[in-house]
Please model this.
Amino acid sequence: MKYEYMVPDRVQGVWKDEQGCLWEYGDREGTVFGEVRRKSKVESQSFLHDDAHQIPVTPLQKRRGMFERVVGYIPCVCEGERGCVCIVAPGYGRMAPKGGALRATVHHGGRSHLFHEQGDGRGEDG
Model:
């Protein structure tokens, strides 16, 4: 399928793809046709086009992975129908076993917060 890029009515930000091309994105509009990622492992027959660039569009997944987040939506047109393509990027948090105890590091506002398995990080047990 061929999706034609449209400039969003209200721009929320700019997303850079693997080739370094910039795509403006906004709010969800109409049908979500598929998703784009900076690096896609899946071969695709569908592409999102603008005047000079194209990126592969993969089928929309019903559920996001634990380490994924939705950045925004790129508006487009497919066969006369308005809709959008979902931008998926790596998530902020990560969980990793370290020193025998399971800890979760959450990045928020430029600071990292470490939560231990035994408590909530405020010195209380339980």
